[in-house]
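Read as amino acids, tokens; as here:

___
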Amino acid sequence: MANYQGFKMRVLLFLLPVFALAQDGANYDIIERTLNFLLFFGILLYFIAKPLKQMYLNRITGIANRLESIAVKLRESNNKKDDAIKRVDEAKINAASFVETAKKEAVLLAEKIKKDTKNEILNLEKSFKDQKEFEERKMTKAVVSELLNEIFDDKNLKVDQKELINIILKKVG
């Protein structure tokens, strides 16, 4: 309020010499008109100054409130953005970890399958070998049995034991 009073005094001191020098002596009512104008302007300022000042302050306050709410929203959105970036980074780390784990599991699974396949092949080879030996023994028994049947069916043939063994060895071998 003190600035406002000082402003009025400065304007009055500035305008007073202008009016004093502007008189040429013929117009005596210029001083009254000037005083009336200054009085009107003063009354107008007196009644309008407070509402204008209050309106101006309200506008400043409103703008400040809007700026503050925008700043709050900006901080919130920045926080949300930072959180989203953190979650994306964590997801990338987790994804990399999952890929690494999957690769390790794939290697382990491939090794297990390879090992199982080798064992299965060894089992099949052993089974084939056993089956082959069984068939050879079966065949040998059949040949020996057939040979013995032939020998014993023939009554005219007299063979000693050494000759019988030699004949069997020739047939089997």
